[in-house]
Amino acid sequence: MKVIEILNFNRELLKRLQDAGIRLEDCRYIDLYADYMKLLGHGEKVSYIVAALSDKYLVSERKVYSLIKRFQSDCKTFAV
After folding, report:
1. pLDDT the model gives residue 47
2. So which domain of life are we looking at (predicted)?
3. pLDDT band for position 69 (50/70/90)?
4. Distance CA 17, CA 47 (A)
5. C-alpha distances in angstroms, 18 versus 7, 55, 67, 69?
6. Domain coverage including residue 53
7. Does residue 77 have a pLDDT over 70?
8. What is the tens place of the pLDDT at every residue in 6-62?
9. 25, exposed or middle or buried, with CB in 10 Å at 0-12, 13-18, 19+?
10. Which terminal CB of the chain, N or C, has fewer other CB atoms within 10 Å?
11. Is 67 helix (H, G, I), strand (E, B) or coil?
């Protein structure tokens, strides 16, 4: 299967995700956010969680903070 075939097949879904303000590359960080929520639920401090996840997922602490903020935000209303 060619890339264009997959894009064409999923065009409507991809357009809706884009309109909702979702970045396709964020799908690789779903596990990072799940780990964040689990550690937060266990009472860990946010700064410790961010440092630990930064090391585990090999991204900067700034990136972790940015992902947390983005994942907790509401979708754009006109896209839903």
Report:
1. 97
2. Bacteria
3. very high
4. 30
5. 13, 29, 16, 18
6. 3-79
7. no
8. 999 999 999 999 898 888 899 999 999 999 999 999 999 999 999 999 999 999 999
9. exposed
10. N
11. helix
Close Cβ partners of 33 (under 8 Å, ≥ 6 residues apart) = 67, 68, 71
Residue type at position 38 = K
The long-range contacts involving 24-30, CB below 8 angstroms and separated by at least 24 positions, are: 26/67, 26/70, 26/71, 29/57, 29/59, 29/67, 29/71
Written as six digits, the tokens of 3 are 């890339």
What's the structural domain count of the chain?
1
Query: Is 31 in a helix, a strand, or coil?
Result: helix
Q: Which amino acid is at 32?
A: L
Amino acid at 34: A
Q: pTM of the prediction?
A: 0.82
